[in-house]
Structure formats: C-alpha cells, structure tokens
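ok, trying the design again with the full structure, not the truncated one.
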C-alpha cells in the first residue's frame, strides 16, 4: 500500500533500481557508468552517495525510537507512527519519498548531511540545493521539492539550509487530504551518455544526449534549476571533434547551449536530445520558438 500510494503520486513514473543487501544491514546499488554508489546503512539510518571516491550522507528525518526499517521490492522503507520514508535508487541518483499519514505528523523534516572536506550546501533563487566546493565544482544537487495530497493537489513546500542540515517544510493542515507524498531527489549525475550520430538531414551530424532519470525529474519539477549544472558535465563527457570543438564564445557554442537549454526546460522526457552544431545561433527565445531546432 505504501509503495502504491507513492507510485500514484509520482507523475513521471521514474523507474527504481533495486538496492541489494550487502552485509549486516548495509544495502547498495552501484551505478558504474557514472562512478556512483548509492547505499543505505540501517545502523546509522543514513543514505550514502559516493562519487569520484567522495562520500556524502543524508540522514532519515524520523526521530521516533519506534522507527522500523524493512526492504520491499528493492526499496528501503523506514516507518514510524506518523510517516514512512522510502529510499529509492534511481538512474543518476537517489530519492527519499516521504509518505505522511495525518495532520498530527511533523511539518518539518530535517535531513542531516555530511559532506566531503571543502564542500558546502548552497541554495539558488528557485529553491534548488547544490553541493559544491570552493572552486565551484558541483558534486551533486537536489531539485526544488514537491508535495502532493491524496487528491493530487500540490502542497506548499520548500527547503531551508541550517548549517549541514537540509530542512524541508511541508505546509499542510486539518483540511488536507491524506496521505501526502513529498520527494527530495538527490542527483549525482546528469548525463547518461553522449554520441555523435549522422541522421542524413539538412543538419546531418547530431550530438545525441541521453540524460539520467534523476536529471529529467529534477529539471522538470524544479522550474529554474540552472541548466549550467549539467551543461558543464556534458562538456566534460563530450570530447572535442571535427563536428564541434567546444570553443567558448563562438556562435556554434552558443547555438549548442541554447538547443540544450531548450530541451532541458521544455522537453526533458524526450528519449534523446539531439543538438546540431550547424544550426544557427538565433538566441534562446527564437530557439524556443523553433521547438529547439532553429534553421
């Protein structure tokens, strides 16, 4: 019933990846393609995300001494008298789905984080959270939160940063239809793959991009999540080629960026995003008007 309720409120039906029992209450799922390891430690009640041999953890917000943890369909469910926290490994990251039973439940959920040395939490103007170091290198990001009641209506929710604690406020009342589902999604990778393909069109050579499920989910819901978070990752993953040398400040570079931003902001769930370096730089607004494919 818990998982069914969560699935009904998940508008995007993101596929979950099974966490595997490793040893004595420790579970993990290795996403080798991204050098990411998603884990969960039932002793410390912390979710673990490892990337580039750097480790971050996020604690479960439930404080009750009666909290129980069980595995169901490859997902870990932490339950107390008033709520469930379902930890799911998803392509490119992890999310913790909060299932709230009644108006007696807490309205504030504290996710305590431990970060690698020299990394901090920052929040942008749209409410998204970024984990980055002093040089500005982004390690992971958490998209702006959402919450829905039993009827699918949106419930006001937002994050605040209290030192290394991510605090989520969920503003429900006695008139709210329960249960409520809310979703912090924590992404460690934005791009699943990039590949040059020849489609034999007017603009034959395309950089075909497959975003991760975590990035698609957060960019769609976040509404203002800076596409630069993933654009930098794309540049690293895509070698310079005869089709695009990635020279910054050129008309080609700007055209590719505008095509990318258009796909991210308007068609994030398209299976592949195809960017053509031979398309003209017409500016972002005109790129949107051309359905991301200016001529």
């Amino acid at each position: 019933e818990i998982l069914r309720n969560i699935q009904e409120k998940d508008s995007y039906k993101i596929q979950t990846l099974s966490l595997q029992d490793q040893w004595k209450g420790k579970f993990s799922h290795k996403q080798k393609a991204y050098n990411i390891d998603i884990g969960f430690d039932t002793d410390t009640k912390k979710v673990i995300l490892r990337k580039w041999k750097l480790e971050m953890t996020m604690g479960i917000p439930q404080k009750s001494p009666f909290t129980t943890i069980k595995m169901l369909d490859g997902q870990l469910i932490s339950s107390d008298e008033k709520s469930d926290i379902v930890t799911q490994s998803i392509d490119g990251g992890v999310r913790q789905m909060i299932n709230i039973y009644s108006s007696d439940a807490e309205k504030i959920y504290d996710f305590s984080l431990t970060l690698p040395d020299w990394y901090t939490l920052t929040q942008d103007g749209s409410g998204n959270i970024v984990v980055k170091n002093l040089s500005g290198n982004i390690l992971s990001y958490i998209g702006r939160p959402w919450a829905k009641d039993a009827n699918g209506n949106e419930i006001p929710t937002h994050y605040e940063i209290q030192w290394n604690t991510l605090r989520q406020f969920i503003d429900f009342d006695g008139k709210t239809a329960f249960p409520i589902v809310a979703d912090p999604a924590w992404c460690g990778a934005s791009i699943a793959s990039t590949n040059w393909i020849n489609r034999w069109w007017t603009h034959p050579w395309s950089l075909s991009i497959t975003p991760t499920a975590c990035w698609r989910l957060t960019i769609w819901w976040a509404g203002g999540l800076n596409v630069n978070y993933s654009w930098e990752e794309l540049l690293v993953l895509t070698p310079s080629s005869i089709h695009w040398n990635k020279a910054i400040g050129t008309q080609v570079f700007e055209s590719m960026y505008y095509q990318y931003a258009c796909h991210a902001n308007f068609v994030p769930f398209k299976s592949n995003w195809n960017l053509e370096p031979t398309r003209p730089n017409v500016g972002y607004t005109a790129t949107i008007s051309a359905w991301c494919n200016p001529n």
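Keeping the full-length input from now on. The chain is about 15% helix and 40% strand.
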